[in-house]
User: Fold this.
Amino acid sequence: MLAFIVRRLFVSIWVFLAASVVIFFLAVNVRDPLSEARQLPGPAQESAMAEITERMHLDEPTIVRYFLWLADVLTGDLGVNRQGQDVNAMLEGAFTATLQLVTGATVLAIVVGITIGVVSALRQYTALDQTVTFVAFICFSLPVFWIGTLLKQFLALDFNDWLADPTISPVFIGGIALLTGMACASIILGDRRTRLISFAASAAAMATLLAVLSATEWFTDPGLGPFVVALSAAAGAIGFTTLVRGLEWQRPLQAALMTAGVGVVAMFALDPVLDDPDVLTIGGLAVLTAAVSAGIGWYWGGDLYRQAAIPSAVLTGLFTGAVIFTDRMLMNFDNYSASVGGRPISTVGAETPNYEGTFWESGLDSFGHLALPTLALVLLSLASYTRYTRASMLEVMNQDYVRTARAKGLSERAVVTRHVLRNGLIPITTLVAYDIGAILGGAVVTEQVFGWSAMGSLLFTGIEQGDPMPIMAFFLVTGGAVVVFNMLADIAYAFVDPRIRLS
Amino acid sequence: MTQNPPASAPEKGPAKDPAKDPATAGARPPGAADAAQGMAVVARSQGQLVRRRFLRHRGALAGMLLLFFVVALAVTSIGAGPLPGWWDKDPTTTGNVVGNGDPTLSVLPDLLGGGGVHLGEHPFGQDNIGRDYFALTMRGTQVSLLIAIIVGLVATLVGTVIGAAAGYFRGWIEAVLMRVTDVVIAIPTLLIAGLIGVIIADKGVVLFALFLGLVAWTQIARLVRGEVLSLREKEFVEAARSVGTSSRRIIFKHILPNTVGIIIVAATLTIASAVLLESALSFVGLGVQPPDTSLGRLITEYRSALTVRPWLFYWPGLFIVAIALSVNFIGDGLRDAFDPRQTRVRD
Amino acid sequence: MLGGVLVLSACGGDDDDDGGEENQSGGTGGTVTYGMAQPFQAYNNTTASANTVANGQVTQQVTSGFWTFGNEDGQLIENTEFGTYERTSEDPLTVDYTINEEAVWSDGESIDCDDILLWWTAQSGALDGLFSAVGTQGVEDTTKPECEPGDKAFQLVYDTPFADWIYNGPGHGNNTMLPAHVVAEQGGLSSEEFLAALRDDDAEALQEAAAFFNEGWSIDGALPDPALIPSSGPYVITGYEAEQSVTLTRNENYWGEPGAADTIVFRTIAEEEQVAALQNGEVDIIEPQPTVDLANQITGASNIESQVAEEYTYEHLDFNFNEGPFSDSLPLRQAFALCVPRETLVTNLIQPVVPDATVKDVRNIAPWDPGYDIAIEASSDSLEELGTQDIEAARAILEAEDAIGTEITFSTLDNQRRNDAGQLITAACEEAGFEIEFTAELDFFDSRLPENRWDVAMFAWSGSPSVAGWNSTYRTVGECSPTGKGNNNGCYSSEAMDTLLDEILVTSDLDEINRIAGEVEALAWEDLVTIPLYQHPGITAWNPAVQNVLPNPSQNGITWNADTWSRS
Assistant:
């Protein structure tokens, strides 16, 4: 295995170097970097051209310039752009912004995509499945800048306008309720009557909820309140226990419920800490939560149920933490909204310049700026995860071992979670790796729509100015990511399948 | 593939109910129903099976119809090359802007309070200098389709040859070809496409598309290689080799025909993504150059028209979505048709 | 921290209004955010490679000088807060400059002799251009001013008469005085040593200082030490996010009228995204290049104010005088001038933005410049003959010249308005009998224009009231090559024109300048060097909560009076 990794690493380095040569030769020929200087009047023209020529080594042959670049890069110096600015500094800012966008969008797309894919595979050929398939294909076929422009108009400008007077029209309430009802009805398995009941119940619940939220102007000053938090925590406890072990045994469920209870109590106890924490505090609290939850599971589960109680409790604990976190965010929403003139969803950039507020307000500022580009990217990559998960699940569900599991009388829940999900999701892990180039490409275009100064502007300004250094910096990061992720995926495959590493 | 039973497993769900499927109900002999009842199994060739499965895929059929409609509309309306079209305006003639350049297309009948069903003088409106926007959109559609098809063809050809050679010959040929593939994969498509786009900007659409095709073949090469790797170990190839068949003949007569399925599917999906790639490149200003236009370029030019003259923004967008959507559906149908495992129903 | 508090108090209304500091002008002026397309990159905007409009817009408020372009008409305004200047002799042309006694850098250092000498050394290109400068027109013809440490007055004495002397002293941003004490320190010299080296032309001693002057003020990822970027204007640079924003706060040591807003943020936003950002309250002031839709989007939005106006920049067609069918055929140029639909261009492309826009009839002089009527008058014969589109007449000329079907390459930069204009011109002139190959490329300025691979080229000149700016456009070039032809892209050559241009450069009487400028126009029409098309339209849009937004047509744009912006 080690030999395989070393070999793969060696190959990757050569591949990357070869690719860098290709890009460098294209990048130095893309535009004339002296074009703007040429338009300057009189002597300024000469001095500007001389300055740029010297800075960019324009009088050297391309191959020499490549090795000059390579020598610098090996010492960690990415050079200067045409204006003489340090590319390292430019890359740092650009990379942080793009990474933020890509990570958030990819994680969200994976979670949502897999969930939808699993549900639609389990309900194959129902109206739900076909709707999901259709919507997935639509998303798959959208030009990202087209949808980005629409999102900006409708979800930023119009939504912010709406926030000034957040009442929901009855038609809209009716529509959402109808859709919710239809979705719930098609998820539930059962006869017509059961479905009708679930349709009516969920539609009515949604309609009531929206009507109440609208009437109380909840959207101007949102929040969950202790009651909803506690309710969600309890629901989470039951849900996660079902997923992990089923509800036949009491101990794991009790452990999870206890964790949820502790979480709600902690919410009140930690009130002063949560007023304006920093990132470290939040991280620490998350670790603490996991530890305490694990402790509860370990103790209450006893020897017999420990294996199920611990994951149930930990998942419940973290979920409760997340709900409390969300609640806090929502509670700070009105403050934040007021500080940006009542228009919390932004259309441009990654942050409000010079914004200073509490942890929560800064968080909301990031959220307000990330929301739309992330949504655009999620829509774009959601489809492939959904489709892939669905196909993979269906394939696994037809395997003999699944049939065997059913035959020996395992519950449907156990069959799905223990056999189908686990095996069906393995190939998806590598999907991200092989897809990283496309994800970055989508992100780069999305950034342009939402006016982010990130990797995209590094590349496009570089191309526009015939400036190879920023282009190469872009390549180092994105091409590097592609090579590394591909290598990791290959190694992961080799780990699973010994035939590959022997070939 | 052939070890699968004929596509006769009882399937549930509306899409798979042959009797209700208008597209296939009339055309199919009663044999299908017989097979479902396990009475007589009609022998069918691989090609027939694929066709039957494809035609049962409702999405793919709809995709075919939509794509046919779009292509027919784009080609016949303003004509192509020497062929004249039935639309009396062309995308380059300027003129007076009539009535603010508003679109004259109306689909609401008089009864419903609309202006009646008619195309009018300028169904999609006019641009700033009085050009007919319908003709422009059709021209954009033609260019986008042309680029997508060229990219699809070039990528498929290059990818298949490289993948097949690498998979069949192994050894240093494979090593070299796969490293070349790795190098191309290592370069993000948008980056290299953008650079090439700028460098050959004034050389026309066809060359631009050819170059895009030359960077888009890696996926196909990998797939084909994988398939060839497994096929070359099969008994029938072994047999051919043992009677002294040349490598070329083995590749072209015995191996490639068996990879046609995945090649067609991958080619289709490449075409769909090429449509979107072209539009993204045009959006960042690295794509088709004027005076020619493309759907991506039209959207980009009229992005700020969204609230002012929305039709200028929506129409080209709808055509891009229509093309990409229909091609994706066709690809999905083809995949199901060539690889029935994916649609087999849980029982 | 202060900035953050101010932002909150400014936008959050009455929450905690006492967070901001009271200023001398009374009350807080809030935060005003300006959206600009290009990022801020350098504190020193006077070097050839750093000089950009964006840098100029920021440094305008940070490094001040004796004069700037401003007001509604974009003419020169003297900045008497900084100092005064007057012409004290015509022969030799002598101008006396006096810096305000109270003028200091924001770090307390007085603005005086060393700053003056540094300015002169850089702007005159002395010491073989050791200190980089954008251009040296004028200053190189003056003798080095003399001054003693602490002196706040100096004299520029010209070797030859010079038309643009009023634009030639230290101004804001582009040709401003920079803090010599910072340059000295970074060059490893004491103030005295630095001054001495400047006075003695000691290039050796100045090497390191010059290196800092040329490169050291380029901003890489983060602001340099605040001590390196002091201010001589109403604002000082206090915050910077690479490629995203630069923040100015009030200069507490400014001796003149303090800036009205507490904070001015210059935010980098691509033009296409600016309107949405303004509508969404993320910026307060924008001035994008207006397309028809963008202008309608702005005027259609309910919550923003806007103003449209013509700018100094104007669009024109250049003929290639070096080769091709137009190079030696005046009749063909006239035929082309007659077929160009100048009226339609304005109606379809400009009037939707600026309703009262008109066809541009003279080149270098804007309708609001004092010499405009004189130039129109001087060109009236040509305008009569060629000023209106007449396809029949154009065709008649082509037939007479036996030139129907002459093949023309017509090129421009790729953007929406130019594509549209190009299509209109192509359609009309093909009707007249030309065969036109129209190209619109993103790298038009990189290759096609400098390499003369065109017969007609369409692009814009950015104008200003100064004469030196356009002087080189029509002057005979030494060599018709990408580097040799300078601004005279078509390589037009005429002895009569060269004489006029020489004459105008050394004239310092305004009426006389206007008269010669009129003659230049008349000759440019007679020879049909170029065809003027239209003044570029400009649009400025702002949040009604911001006061004192006054658009002007000069290249400083809207930020010329940013120090008086405020937000309630």
